[in-house]
Structure formats: structure tokens, C-alpha cells
Amino acid sequence: MAETAEERTLTHATSTDERQGGEGGVANISPSHRRYILMLLLVVSTLNFLDRQIINILVEPIKQDLHLADWQRGMLTGLSFALFYSVLGLPIARLADRSNRPIIIGVSLLAWSGFTALCGIANSFAHLLLARVGVGCGEAGGGPPSHSLIADFTTPQNRASALAYFSLGSPIGTLLGLGLGAVVADAFGWRMAFFIAAAPGIILAVLLMATVKEPRNLRALEGKPKASIKDAWIELKSKRTFWWICFAGAATSVATYGQGAFWSSFFLRVHGDEISTLSPAGTGPLVLVGVSLGLVKGLSGVAGVITGGLITDRLARRDLRSYCSVPAIALLLASPAFVLVMLAPGFVMAAGLLILPVFLSSLIFGPSFAAVQTLVSPGTRATAAAILLFILTLTGLGLGPLFIGICSDIFSASLGSAEGLRWALLLTAPANLIAGLAFWRARRTIVQELELD
């Protein structure tokens, strides 16, 4: 039964893409130009995560300079960004479902790059908080329109791989943010790191808007009835698989974003003596931690994202439940792997063990994003992506770092700052187990809920 449903799905989706192409969509984009668009969107995604994540490696010197508590750094790395990113994501996605997506992405890129630069001139917690809010507002226009654009010029057979390629921006941006951020901060101070991170976005935004055209026939769309937010909600409300994926994504995001905000502090506090001994002459411990974290999270994250997309596309040709099976198995294994990192006796061992949970957690990007884009009709794709990212960002990035920061402050009063942070991080270990079980539950309904009309 699953194979029959899959054949019907792939046949319909391919014919849908052909119809879109006849109206100025996929058929009018050459393979080389598709690759060019995907490459540009990958760079946009990379800058998105670079500007979002660079504060994680800079937060210790910022904390010392601006005299911040752990709960305040949790606000800066999480909730301040996530709240406005999440709230603005939906109206921007509704706009993207009916208008020029490259322009929306380009303007958003200009906005978040400008606010990243403003982070570098902040002289108080309040000023930095407002600048981070601005970064979140700008980045709200990056992800959902990009997901929708990619889904429009790919077929279901290669959609997981294409969205996985776009999602490489997360580990690559993290690598650059942690590695280069640490090196620049050590040499020139944390403020200069923000300025350098912001500069490429302005150039790329102009290039994107000048060379990438909207593949849809916007005039044809204007002549058709416009789906309201109510219509989109009715469609999504009926998709049980979508909501299980959202729940799973929220759970794993609490772990991923929460832990990511405190990795550098964890290593510096728990393994500080070993790091000082291992640090190259003439550099501070922040450089070794930043470069090590950047390489581990970047390279293992890239490997995980690519592997997840390729495996899912191959397995889904036989069983569409693979869109949920691959993330489920990966996350069930990631949770105990994370505990091993937290309990490792030294920095070198902990950094080496970190490869495994990062790789496993990164496997989920391609399949989960592709599943969402295949579950809904083309006119709801950006909206569906925005709702998913709304839930992931608000719960994971918004609450994860803040929760760990508060727990760290509480535990540190009796255990000390190093052990207090370790146990605060360990509280997030069950999150990936919950997420894995939720993805496994989504397998039950995904085949019958794929968009076939």
C-alpha cells in the first residue's frame, strides 16, 4: 500500500511542477541556473546562521565586559532573537506565498546584516538586546521563502537532498561563527567580530536581488483566488503528520539551541585548565575552544546534513515513511551520545565525542523539511515552513538557552559555576529521546496525508 501511494504522490508532484513551469516556473529555469540559485541560497543560509550563532562564542567576553548574569546571556542568545523571528515569520511567509520571494529574501538579508553590525556598538545589556531583536526580525524573512522557492524548482525525488543542501548553512555558518568569531575576538575584540560578520550580507543581498528572478508567474497568481490565512490553517490543521513533526522539532530544538548557546562556556569552565595548557602560544583559550567547536560542529554537521538528505531520498523511493524514520532513529541515538560528552573527563575526549551527537542531530534537516514541503499544496509551502520554524525557534532558541541559563544560575549557587552549568545542560538530555519518539509516531500517518490533489 505504501508503494502505491508513493507512486501516486511522485506522479502527481511531478505533473504539478510541470504545470507550474508552464506558467513561468520550473520549466523555464535551466539546470545550471537552478544550481546557481541553490548556491546563493546556501550562502544566505550560511550568513543567517553565522549572524545568529556568532554571539555564542563571544558571550563570555561580552559577559565580562557588560557584567551579565547567565540568565541575561540566555536572553541574548535565545529569547530576544527567537520571539520576533517567530512572530514575524508567518506574515512574511504569507507574503512570500503570493509575491516575489528573491526580493523578500534580499531585503531581509540587508536588515539582519545591518542589525548584526549594530550589535558591535552596543554598550549595555539593553542596547545589545534591542540589536539582537533586530537580527531576529530580519532573519524571519530568510528561511520560509527559501524553503518555498527550493520546493518549487525541485521534484519530490530530490527535494530532501536539495533542502539538505540549503540546510548546510547551519553547520557551515556555525563553523564560521565559532571559529572566525573566536579568532577575530581574540585579536581585535568581540565588537569587531560582529562588524566582520555583517559585511558579506550587504553584498550578497544586492547580488541576489539583481540576478535571481521569481520563477512563478505573479500575474497569473493575481488572477486566481488568494488563499487566506484561514484556508492555510484549515489545510495544515488536518495534517496530523505535520504537527507531530512540529512537536518533534520543538523538542530537539530545545536541546540543540540550548546546548549550542553554552558549549563554549561549558568547555571553558569545566575543562579550563586543560584548555589553557593546550592553547597555542600567543593566543587565549577562547581561540582553541572556538576553532575546535567550529570544526567539530561544522564538519560533523555538514556530514550529517548531507547524509540525511541522500539517505532519505534513496529510502523514500521505496517507503515514504523514511521522511520520519531517519530523524527518529538518529535522535534516539543522539541523546545518550550527548550524555557521554557531558561526562567525559577531559577537553580532548569531550570535543571528540561531540562529533557523534552533532552528526546524528544534523541528519534530520533534509527529511523533516522535505516532509513538510511535500505534505502541503504549493500555495501553502512558505506558510507551513514558517509555522514549523516558528515553533522550532520560539521553543528551542527562545526557551532553551534561557532555561539552561536560569538552571545554571540556581545550581551554581551550591555546585559552583562549572558543575552548575554541567547539570543544567544534562537536564536537556531527554529532549532528543522525546523528539525521536514523536518522529516515529509521525510515520503512521505520513503516507496517507501527502498532498495528492
From TrEMBL:
UniProt keyword Membrane, yes or no: yes
Transmembrane segments: 76-96, 102-122, 163-184, 190-212, 242-266, 286-311, 323-344, 350-372, 384-411, 423-440
Pfam families associated with the record: MFS_1 (PF07690)
Keyword annotations: Membrane, Transmembrane, Transmembrane helix, Transport
Record SUPFAM superfamilies: MFS general substrate transporter (SSF103473)
Membrane topology: Multi-pass membrane protein
Segments for region (Disordered): 1-27
MF terms in GO: transmembrane transporter activity
PROSITE patterns with a match to the protein in the record: MFS
Major facilitator superfamily (MFS) profile domain span: 37-447
Biased amino acid composition, Basic and acidic residues: 1-21
PANTHER family in UniProt: PROTEIN SPINSTER (PTHR23505:SF79), SPINSTER (PTHR23505)
Protein name: MFS transporter
Organism: Sphingopyxis lindanitolerans
Lineage, uppermost ranks: Bacteria, Pseudomonadati, Pseudomonadota, Alphaproteobacteria, Sphingomonadales
